[in-house]
Structures are given as structure tokens and as C-alpha cells.
């Protein structure tokens, strides 16, 4: 029945080009059609239930089927389904949201600019920084510094900041001037015997040397996810952010915190910047801002950036940047209700408390023959699978074992993300301790099965 030509399944294979998917493989294996959701669970069209251990795409903070968000959207659509914020127009939800975000983010951030997506937000950051530096007469100060394994989106500019080969290969990226520095992942990139602090010193020295090599008058900004997400769930080494910030401040290099995954409680603090003591000039927010019930992102900028941008717009006549949906009232209304729920239900504290359980339960798998490292903070974690625990050798080829775990997990009612051979966990912030234990148990069964398979089958043949 499922493959009937009129089924969603068959029409998907016939008509859809999927993002971030091997299109030829998709023609063979077809889609899992997700039909509905409730709490931490989603159901496919055959009635199978899955724990959504990645909260969709790291984003459904309040869980699926939250009626209050549906009602907030419906109320706003009935009153004012759309209006823009170009040329001196505004609407109440977008103003309420801007005010709320300014008041809840670090004190230096004083204005909000809205977009539809994290990628557009990071494109907007690049343009704002260029516009600001032109306004300051610093016309050569335009380069960005990012990191290997960073994820900042996929548009031409934000995709240039991203440091993952799959998002750049054959897309002719990077396109904007950017340098990608060493990934701050201690397990993979520290030298033998190097402490976390010494590793952080080395990375800060690399940043400084890069700024000097490029010329401080050409380097505009450093962008980083406080804890890197899509690159493999990579927390930085101790003292990393304080050292990176000190170098940036020395050379008038702006600090951009990409909080698209970290923001709104993921690490057990409201923002990743709170967790790591970052005082950014720009903060990028999305995903959990609406629990992804509606597309929305916000760029929060400092007073200095705002003043520079405002002055220049006065001088040349306009700040000629914006989207049809910048400040759209419906996602703004959903965001406000979503933030109410996060506060009322203490979901940031839940992420901290239940996150400890998740980290402990997952770390208990460190002895498993396939597990090289378990890492993370709050309700985000990565379990890196390796061919040899002692040497940290990766599987050859990378990614086949991860893909095996990913597809097998479905059979145990578990949706996770495989990033190469790292398995990522990022469940809704509403998850309970019992549900975390259930999630880890399903993962453990999947891992054991994969280990058995690997004893019988060569990795390349998977
Ligand atoms: C840190 C970070 N920045 C930016 C983006 C891009 O957001 P979007 O997919 O909404 O364009 C993502 C998406 O996963 C992200 O994780």
C-alpha cells in the first residue's frame, strides 16, 4: 500500500528534491513520512512512534503538538496575518519580541533585526558588519574568521562561513573572504600531552597570527557557535572563549556568537554565551526561538553597531537590507508564546537538570567497544564512534557506521542524527528523566547490534 503511486511516499520520490540528502539513495530507500507529533514523539504514516532525539533539527524546544503555539498563530493570523516592517511600518508582535530579546540577551545587545532563517541571519550579519565598517571609514576591514567544522548556514555568504566540506564541495564556496581556523575539539585536534588550557592557548595564538598575517585592518569579525552543533557537537576546551575574545578585542575584530542551536536553554543556561562567558557584539538566534513551529531568526546587535548603521543610513538615505518577512507578525507571536512556555515551565532549568542525567547515562557508554568519546553540555551531546579506542582511529570509510546506527535506530523507535560517525542527541527541552533513560536504552541496543554486525561484516561492505 505504501508504494501506491498516489501515496505520499511514492509522490515524494517522484517530485521532491530533498535538502542534505543523497538523491540517488533516496530513490532507492524512499522517505519516512512523518505524520504527526506529540511531546518528544513523532509518528510516521504507518503508525510507528519515534523518540525525536534531535528535536527535529535541534529546534523543537517545547515538544510537538503544543496547542498554545497553534492558538497563538491562529489568533495572530485572524487579527493581522501579515505585515512588513519596511519604510517606517511596524506591528505589535515584532516590537514586543524585539524588546523581549533585547532585555533577555547580554546587556551590550540593543537592537533586533528579523529574518526567516539562520542562514539569512548570518548573511545579514556579514552585510551589517561590512556596512558598519564602511560607515566607520574602514573600507578594507571585511574578512571573517570561522573554524573548521563550523556550521553557519548554506546560503552563498553564510555557507562560506560554514567549515564543512559537504556544504561547500561543488558549490564553489567559500565565496566571501573567510579563513577557517583549527576546530576547537580537544579529543581530535589537541597534541599528545597537551592540556585543554594549552590547546586553547595554541588556538588563540593561531587566531592572533592569522589576524597579523591578513592584516588587522582587513579582518572584520570572528564568528563561532559557543558550542559547535552540526559539526559534531563539539564543546570548546576550557578557557577557549576568554582567550579568543581577548585577541579579538586587541584588534577591533567583532565577536559574533551564533546561538542558532545553543540559544534558549539548550546548554542548561539561557544562552551559550552565558555558559561560556562570551560578551558578543552580535548574537544570532533562531530554531528554539519559535520551537521551529514558524520560521524565524533574529540578529541582535550592539549599541555601537546600531549607531554606525543608523548614521550611515541617514547619510546615504537608507539601510537597504531586509526581507518580505522581516518582523512577520505570526512567527513573532509564536515566538512570544514559546518564550512564555520556556519560562513558565522552567525549561532552561529542566535542560540543566535532565541534561545532567543525559550526560551521565551517555557517558556510561564510554566503555562500549565502539565509543571513542562522549561529549556535550545540558541537553546536547555527541557520541563519537571509532574503529580503535586506544588510537582514536576513525572507521574507514568515515560515515558508514554512523549511517548504520542512524537507520537501525529507527527500528528501535529512535530518531538521532549521524554526523559522520558521531551520533548527536538534542532532544526537546521538555524531556523527562525517564524518557532520557528510555532514549539511551534504545541507543544502547542499536549500538550493540551494530557492534555484532561489525564483527561479521567489513565496514566498507555495510
Ligand atoms: C549554528 C547554526 N547557524 C545557522 C544555521 C542555519 O540556519 P537555517 O537552517 O535556519 O538557515 C544553523 C542550522 O542548523 C545552525 O546550526
Instruction: Flag low-confidence runs.
Output: none
**What is the oligomer described by this structure?**
single chain
Radius of gyration: 22 Å
Helix coverage percent: 40-55%
Structural class: alpha/beta
How do the strands line up in the largest sheet?
A: 4-10-9-8-7-5-6
Ligands in the model, by name, code or SMILES, are: pyridoxal-5'-phosphate
**What is the CA–CA distance across the termini?**
29 Å
Overall residue-averaged pLDDT value: 97
The total beta strand count reads 15
Helices, by number, come to 17
Shape: globular
Largest sheet: 7 strands, mixed
Strand content: 15-25%
Key attributes of the depicted protein:
462 residues; globular; seven-stranded mixed beta sheet; 15 strands; 42% helix; alpha/beta
